[in-house]
Design a protein that fits this description.
Length: 150
C-alpha cells in the first residue's frame, strides 16, 4: 500500500506541473485518480545480478512530454538475506540512435552521482536493460526484460 501511495504522489506531482489547468478542472469533478493512472506507464521485471538472486525493477514513466520517472530498484537478498531497496526519481532522457544500422529508442534513467541505467524500448510492452551504447547482453539465456503492467 505504501508503494502505491508513493507512486501516486510522484505521478500526481508530474501531472500537476504540466497540466495544472486540466488537473484543476478534473479535481472539481473528483476524477483525479483516473488522470494519474492514465498518464503513467508502468514496467516491472527482474534481471540477473552478479552476486545475488537478482534485481527487481519497477518503473513508472510519465506518458507525457515531461518524461518524468519513478524507479524502485530492489536487490534481492542483498544484505544478510534481506532486500536492499533504492528509489530514484527524475527525468528520463529519451535516446534515439542507430545501432548496427537499426534505429533504436531507449531511455536513460539517472541514478545520481554520474550513474545511469539504460533501457531499450523493444516494443510497446517491453523495456530491455542495455549498456550505455544501447547494446544488449551477449548472453541469450539471461532475461533483462521489464514488462508493461496493465
Amino acid at each position: 500500500m505504501k508503494k502505491v501511495f508513493v507512486l501516486m504522489a510522484v505521478c500526481a506531482t508530474m501531472v500537476a506541473c504540466q497540466q495544472k489547468g486540466k488537473a484543476d478542472a478534473e479535481a472539481k469533478t473528483g476524477d483525479t485518480a483516473q488522470v494519474e493512472t492514465a498518464d503513467t506507464v508502468r514496467y516491472t521485471g527482474e534481471v540477473p545480478a552478479a552476486d545475488g538472486p537478482g534485481i527487481r525493477y519497477e518503473i513508472a514513466l510519465a506518458a507525457d512530454s515531461t518524461n518524468g520517472f519513478y524507479m524502485k530498484e530492489t536487490y534481492i537478498e542483498a544484505e544478510n538475506g534481506k532486500d536492499a531497496v533504492n528509489n530514484y526519481t527524475g527525468t528520463a532522457e529519451k535516446i534515439e540512435k542507430d545501432v548496427n544500422g537499426t534505429k533504436k529508442v531507449a531511455y536513460k534513467f539517472a541514478t545520481g552521482k554520474d550513474g545511469a541505467i539504460y533501457f531499450l524500448q523493444v516494443n510497446d510492452s517491453t523495456l530491455r536493460m542495455v549498456n550505455d551504447q544501447l547494446e544488449e547482453s551477449g548472453s541469450k539465456e539471461l532475461n533483462y526484460d521489464l514488462k508493461l503492467v496493465k
